[in-house]
Amino acid sequence: MQQHDPSNHPEAGGIVDFHYIELKDVGGKTSGEQDLRPCLIWNVRVIEMIQLVAVLPIVSGATKARVAISPAERAALGLADTTDVVFEEANVFLWPGPHLEPQADRSLVRPRRASKQLLNAIADGMTGRICNIIFRP
User: Fold this and answer.
1) What pairs with residue 15 in β-bridges?
2) Using a CB cutoff of 8 Å and minimum separation of 24, what contacts does 69-74 make?
């Protein structure tokens, strides 16, 4: 029997290091800036054998709609002290995809997952809002 390996299997609540594209309004034009940052796996959809994954950025000094991560959870997840999860936009890609940065042990997902409390707070914050989707090839 094959063992389940969570280190390379995308599940909601997992944290990955991802080359995230954030949409920015620059002089009335929309452009995308790509930064390597921790991201929360928000949703995983399996279609046939394809895994479609949506990630939300975890950033410091966010000005968009966001949910704060508690200090204890930030420490447990290995995140900076001032980071929040932004939920106004998401990057969507086929797993695993070239935009993931492997961990030191070559796994794709960090060992600790976000709490159900944080996931529920994000879901509550998203209620009635539209999330911009950026599809990554």
Assistant:
1) 40
2) 69/114, 69/118, 70/118, 73/114, 73/115, 73/118
* Digit-coded pLDDT (tens) for 78-92: 999 999 999 999 999
Q: Give the closest residue to 23 by CA, choosing from 14, 12, 35.
A: 35
The residue to which tokens 């509550």 are assigned = 124
For the question of whether the overall pTM of this predicted structure is more than 0.85, the answer is yes
pLDDT, tens digit, 9 for 90 and up, residues 23-48? 765 555 556 678 899 999 999 999 99
Rounded distance between C-alpha atoms, residue 15 and residue 17, angstroms: 7
CATH architecture of the domain formed by 6-135: Roll (2.30)
Domain residues of the chain, as ranges? 6-135
CB 132 within 8 A of CB 20: no
Listed residue (112, 26, 120) closest to 76, CA to CA:
112
